[in-house]
Amino acid sequence: MMKRIHPMLLMLLPLLLSAAIAQAQYKISGTVTDNKNQPIRGASVYLENTLDGGTTDSLGVFRFTTSEKGNQTIVASEVSHETGGLPIVIMGDVSGIVLHLKANAAHDLDVVVITAGSFDASNDKNKTVLKPLDIVTTAGANADVVKAIEMLPGTQQTGTENGLFVRGGDASELAILVDEMVVQNAFFSGPPGVATRSRFGAFNYQGISFSSGGYSARYGQALSGVLELNTTDLPDKSTVNLGINMAGLYASGTKKWKNSALDIGGSYNNLTPFYGLATTNFKFYNVPVGGSGNLRYVWKPKKDAILKITANSSYMTSGIAVPNPYSGVSPTANTDTFAKQFSKLGDTVNFLTRDQYYYTNVSYKQLFKDKYSLFVAASYSLDQTNNAFGSIPIDETDHRTQFRVEGKDYFTSRLNLLVGTDVQSYGISKKFDNYFSQGFTETIESGYTELEWTPINRIAIRPGIRYEYSELLNKSDVVPRISMAIKTGNHSQVSLASGFFYQDPDNMYLLAGLRPGMQEAIHYIANWQYTKNDRTLRLEGYYKKYTNLVFEPDNATVANYDPSNYRVITQNTVVNNNGYGYAQGLELFYRDKKTIKNLDYWISYSYIDTKRKYQNYLSEATPTYIADNNLSLVGKYFVDKWQTNFSATYSYASGRPYYNPNNPTFLGDKTPDFNNLALTVAYLHTFGKWFTVFYISIDNITNQHNIFGYRYSYDANGQVTSAPPSPIVPALYRSIFFGVNMSLTQFKKDEL
Questions:
Q1: Which burial class, exposed, middle or buried, applies to 523 when counting CB atoms under 10 A from its CB (0-12, 13-18, 19+)?
Q2: Please, how many CA atoms are within 13 Å of residue 660, restricted to the half-sphere of its CB?
Q3: Spatial distance between the Cα atoms of 696 and 741, rounded to a whole number of angstroms
Q4: Which of 122, 476, 581, 698 is the most buried (most CB within 10 A)?
């Protein structure tokens, strides 16, 4: 039986513990200098494998206390110098420590950095062209990360389709990742022919890397590029955020402890006010209504380790009368019964969408002794849609599970080796009422290694190799990749990249039970970049060759051709890997934040020449989603006196090809040019403790009636009628959106 402790001892216990702790605290102090004995300011100094440490002042002096004793190692690190350390013995206070750090050219602001095919938006000053806040404050993007990326070279403007179209590739050729894990269904579900937003909240990411080609060996299954989003680490402070706008309202809160933080948020969306003021091109008989919730926990168990756990879910429903994507299908066409059945319904059909989405991601990263790093992650997503096309229900379930483990050995500041593996299993099941059902499950096992080497200050080389095995196709591939950069001056460099990239056939073929082989692309990229005094000029050229694309020989005839992007492939469709194509182009990016105070602007231009023969194409042709010329002008100006930020964007794209059955040249006609002018105004004001931003955004100010193609009607004999073709247009031409954001944390002017 436990003896009862005297109350007086309980009262004295905290005092005794405090005294013991006080006696165990030792003072550690010294200086950090460079190899010329000059003090280094802002260096982190700490005892290895502990949380005890401090930061040097302007004289390079550090001071901190610790309860550790005996043999220890004290370490100093600073971004522009190599990390250094010394063994010390703590038996009491230790002073007079001197740590010398060598200049680290590999981290200097003017050193060579590989940039071929890549735009990075992060806090890494070595690579940044755009920062995350640049992404979310771009007029016309409506705080949609993917939409903002369309203002960069190498992309196409979209108005009626979801996805990011990169350098001649369609939407399926780009992979979107969060913390290195592939995201299944990155866009909200919607009716055919109506583009929807991506699922990514604008303020949840500290780094955004967009690669339009030649990307790292750690990623695969993307013929064109990758968009990688990195979530924020430990926040600076606890805060509360509230917002209301024309699409709904939201609330979120962050509670920060010493080494951990918890984020909780939720939103309710109802677009009745928005569509009440907007003139829509389609009838919403049920306006979009839904909600979402998110939970996130971050923990730093030690200085060089971090655990992130993220979970979110959303629900959305809407009903809209949309153009029938099967109305252009000839009743005599050699296509599936499902498409023929819907081709009789007329030009407009009611489409009901109900979408439930769940996503979770867990990752852990740790650096050991400034020499080794370990990254482990797992993710799971589930997307369930219960739609109805007219009176016919269409149910779909998508799921993906992924595991990734990778380690890195920093041999020296100039040489490191990455080795990793990942396994992902994903699948889709689809049911079209009683007509038929389709489905597949694929598992891809991968291994990769990549070496980063800076032999001298002016040269960086990154060779890599990737292995992939597809269980569904029972095929494997080993592909090499390499990129490098050569410094041509104090502020300029040339970058080169090349490699092989493989990808499974499009999901519509796998759903039908067809098993053609992997598709292949080879990238060749070269760029020149000049950066000085907040000005960046970047020129890039590329050539991409496609081979082994999936091709449908029986449907690639005038009699059987179906122009619909939403056609359904069946198991009777004949396919092979005889498709091919190419894409080549030139791109320019210029940004200036220096010339005029408070003005920040950039210019993005792309020219592309691309053709391909794949799927059911009648001949080699430029795809319907390609505009040869794309231009974006983005400007942001902050007026200090008014505490107001003005952001404007002008986007232009030349006409896109479309199918005209009266023209013997396949995809020989083009739409009118695309033009869009957008403006966002944000005003900062304070109400008590609440920092508040009022904002209004106007998209397509001049109300341009942009067209993305045409649909032709057919008679019962499969002949084109004399009726004028129907233009394919976005859900809205012009839109106005306003709202209010409130936070207990002060906004910065560049966050507006």
A1: buried
A2: 16
A3: 11
A4: 581
The letter for the amino acid at 739 is G
DSSP category for residue 229: E
The DSSP annotation for 52-69 comes to -EEE--TTSEEEEEES--
Q: CA-to-CA distance for 167 and 521, rounded, in angstroms? A: 12
CA distance 215 to 525: 11
pLDDT for 593-650, tens place per residue? 889 988 999 999 999 999 999 999 999 999 999 999 999 999 999 898 898 889 999 9
Kindly report the number of other CB atoms within 10 A of residue 547's CB atom. Answer: 14
User: How many beta carbons lie within 10 A of that of residue 330, not counting itself?
Assistant: 22
Q: Is residue 18 classed exposed, middle or buried when 0-12, 13-18 and 19+ CB atoms within 10 A define those classes? A: exposed
Q: How far apart are CA 564 and CA 241, in angstroms?
A: 44
pTM above 0.85, yes or no: no
Kindly indicate the confidence band of residue 131, based on its pLDDT and cuts at 50, 70 and 90.
low
The alpha carbon of residue 559 and the mean position of all alpha carbons in its chain are separated, in whole angstroms, by 41
Three-state SS for 136?
Answer: helix
Do residues 149 and 210 lie in contact, with contact meaning Cβ atoms separated by under 8 Å? yes
Q: How would you label 56-94 residue by residue, b for 16+ Cβ within 10 Å and e otherwise?
A: beeebebeeebeeeeebebbbbbebbbbbbeeeebeeeb
Closest residue by Cα to residue 364 from 378, 350, 351, 353: 378
The dihedral formed by the CA atoms of 76, 82, 88 and 94, expressed in degrees to the nearest 10 = -40
Q: Which of 62, 63, 73, 60 is nearest to 33 (CA)?
A: 60
Distance of alpha carbon 346 from alpha carbon 119, whole angstroms: 45
Determine the residue type at 88: I
The beta-strand segments (E) located in 552-673 are 576-592, 599-613, 629-639, 644-653, 657-658, 669-670
The candidate with the shortest Cα–Cα distance to 545, out of 566, 525, 575, is 525
* pLDDT value at residue 203: 66
